[in-house]
Specification:
Strand order of the largest sheet: 3-2-1-4-5
Number of domains: 2
CATH architecture of the largest domain: 2-Layer Sandwich
Helix content: 25-40%
Oligomer: single chain
CATH topology of the largest domain: Nucleotidyltransferase, domain 5
Largest sheet: 5 strands, mixed
Structural class: alpha+beta
Order of helices and strands: EEEHHHEHEHHHHHEEEEE
Length: about 300
């Protein structure tokens, strides 16, 4: 069972490379939903015993690989978690037999997993053992995305399935976890309204990092002098749905602030941009009085 992410403080510190797939519209980008079951928690010594990787574009599955994997060292382990016994693995292929198919599914796509650092570390270790070393430097993590999108007591996949009423036939089996994860991802995107995978890569927890797309949307609303609907998550509270006329965007602050007043109440608000989940056009309403717009820094 995944308890904590492998330590790699430098992994993915710089943004993904420009262009496809990270800058594709989200419904056009190739996404690979990945889940692995392992014998333990150490990528250097424990082994992958099950994989599910689904390559999806616009909701359509383009390629899929689901298989048990027989470690060539004879390991099994963690049977109490995933229920996969050594006998189940006797006739399964070794990872090297699947490595070419795995690479084909991964090529040119954005990898998405839950507590993704684990799956990425184990996948890289298995590819290296198979003589096909590959670094997956950038990926999306539905655990991080759900922590930003939802105010829930737990963001484990099992807890998300229970809270969001997502059906999952077997816990800790790769194919069922991938199918549940895809639904979690859809729900997250419904809240965060991302335009590209890069926009989701900028979602951070506890880093005071504002998504550039959110800041840009606030600036467009300021320059257009039009009200917008803002989905906002204050610290330790649930999501607020606000209709706001933006009067200023302070990009000189860390994190940036979005200034404005609520409609129809006209009460003033100052919103931390890193806690804004989405900015979307507001439905037409009766005109409000002209605003006094603050200068943008």
């Amino acid at each position: 069972m995944k308890q904590a992410a492998p330590l790699d403080s430098n992994r993915g510190a710089s943004p993904p490379p420009a262009g496809s797939p990270w800058d594709d519209p989200l419904d056009e980008a190739p996404l690979v939903f990945l889940d692995l079951e392992m014998t333990g928690l150490q990528p250097a010594t424990d082994r992958v015993i099950e994989i599910c990787a689904e390559r999806v574009r616009g909701g359509v599955v383009e390629a899929t690989l689901t298989s048990l994997i027989r470690p060539d060292c004879g390991a099994s382990g963690n049977v109490h978690v995933h229920g996969i016994s050594a006998a189940d693995l006797e006739s399964a292929p070794v990872f090297a037999d699947l490595a070419e198919r795995v690479e084909h599914i991964l090529d040119g796509a954005v990898v998405i997993a839950h507590a993704a650092a684990w799956d990425v570390a184990f996948l890289e270790a298995e590819l290296a053992r198979a003589g096909r070393p590959r670094m997956i430097e950038h990926y999306l993590d539905t655990l991080t995305l759900s922590r930003r999108a939802f105010a829930l007591p737990s963001h484990r996949l099992a807890a998300l399935c229970e809270e969001l009423k997502i059906e999952r036939a077997r816990a800790h089996r790769a194919e069922d976890d991938v199918h549940a994860m895809r639904v979690v991802f859809q729900r997250v995107c419904g809240v965060l309204a991302p335009r590209t995978p890069r926009d989701l890569w900028h979602v951070r927890i506890g880093e005071r990092h504002a998504r550039p797309e959110v800041v840009a949307a606030a600036i467009r609303a300021l320059e257009g002098d039009v009200p917008v609907r803002i989905r906002y998550r204050p610290a330790k509270r649930g999501t607020e749905e606000l209709t706001v006329r933006i009067t200023g965007v302070r990009t000189d602050l860390d994190p940036p602030r979005v200034l404005g007043y609520l409609l129809p109440a006209r009460s003033r608000r100052e919103l931390r941009a890193d806690r804004i989940l989405a900015i979307e056009p507001s439905p037409p309403a009766a005109p409000d009085r002209p605003s006094v717009r603050a200068g943008r820094k």
